[in-house]
């Protein structure tokens, strides 16, 4: 079986990465492929760094099952050569998340051998033109995600907002308005659901404030900007002490694995974690 390219395409917020992650972690998929590698391609990388950055991430995963080899760092093509040699004669699944530009794919695609073992390369991207241009020299399938139908949107909204399968009668009108503004996009539904979950369901005025804020912010915007506005609203609703912690995450590249203890030490050093006095601890335990 030939190697195949699988493209999951559409704008951000539709759940491309979530869908691909479910397939990637499926037990049957784990059993079927000898090597599985997941790499998030950050837009901040420059093309010259792609082989040493993105390909090195792939290399660090695939080399675990092979004897260590001395890296010829003087040869800029070494990452491609090494990855190709490691994957050769193996059925592999390589997942590359968030391809923004065709040139980024062109810089790394020749590292993956086509040895007719039924390997798969799975890419998520937002641009249909990039998807079409990426298919050259590959057998390929394209999955274009669509917004959730109304019934599925309600189910997701109920689950994230009320942890139930229904909406309180006093909030039905407001909920319908808010959900309609999300246009079936999972990301804003989950984000606004998180905001509303923290509100008192008996306080219709709190919910109406969210509704009025959304109406002012997104009535005149396109779909992508609506997502950004909803996410901004969920950020603005965070307690002040969590906002600093959230913004601190911007120092990491997208897809970077953050070690828990390292993050805690950094935040303590930055002063984000305040020492509690005994009386404060007593109050928090009441």
From TrEMBL:
Domain NB-ARC: 3-166
GO molecular function: ADP binding
Gene: LOC116206144
Listed InterPro entries: Apaf_helical (IPR042197), Disease_R_plants (IPR044974), NB-ARC (IPR002182), P-loop_NTPase (IPR027417)
Gene Ontology annotations of biological process type: defense response to other organism
Name of the featured protein: Disease resistance protein RPM1-like
Disordered as annotated region, ranges: 49-73
Native species: Punica granatum (Pomegranate)
UniProt-listed SUPFAM superfamilies: P-loop containing nucleoside triphosphate hydrolases (SSF52540)
Highest taxon of the lineage: Eukaryota
Listed Polar residues bias regions: 54-64
């Amino acid at each position: 079986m030939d190697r195949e390219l699988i493209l999951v395409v559409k704008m951000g917020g539709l759940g491309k990465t979530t869908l691909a992650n479910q397939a990637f972690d499926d037990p049957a998929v784990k059993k079927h492929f000898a090597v599985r590698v997941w790499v998030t391609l950050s837009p901040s990388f420059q093309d010259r760094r792609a082989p040493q950055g993105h390909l090195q991430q792939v290399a660090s995963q695939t080399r675990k099952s092979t004897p260590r080899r001395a890296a010829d760092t003087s040869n800029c093509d070494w990452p491609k050569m090494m990855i190709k040699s490691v994957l050769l004669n193996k059925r592999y699944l390589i997942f590359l998340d968030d391809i923004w530009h065709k040139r980024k794919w062109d810089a790394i695609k020749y590292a993956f051998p086509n040895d007719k073992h039924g390997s798969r390369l799975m890419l998520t991207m937002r641009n249909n033109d990039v998807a079409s241009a990426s298919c050259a020299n590959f057998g390929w399938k394209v999955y274009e995600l669509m917004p959730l139908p109304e019934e599925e949107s309600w189910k997701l909204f109920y689950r994230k907002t009320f942890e139930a399968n229904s909406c309180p009668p006093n909030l039905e009108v407001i909920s319908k308005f808010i959900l309609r503004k999300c246009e079936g996009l999972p990301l804003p539904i989950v984000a606004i659901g998180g905001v509303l979950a923290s509100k008192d369901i008996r306080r219709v005025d709190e919910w109406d404030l969210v509704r009025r804020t959304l109406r002012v912010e997104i009535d005149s915007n396109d779909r992508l900007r609506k997502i950004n506005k909803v996410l901004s609203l969920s950020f603005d609703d965070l307690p002040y002490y969590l906002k600093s912690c959230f913004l601190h995450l911007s120092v990491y590249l997208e897809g970077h694995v953050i070690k828990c203890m390292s993050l805690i030490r950094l935040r303590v050093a930055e002063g984000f974690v305040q020492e509690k006095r005994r009386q404060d601890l007593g109050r928090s335990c009441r």
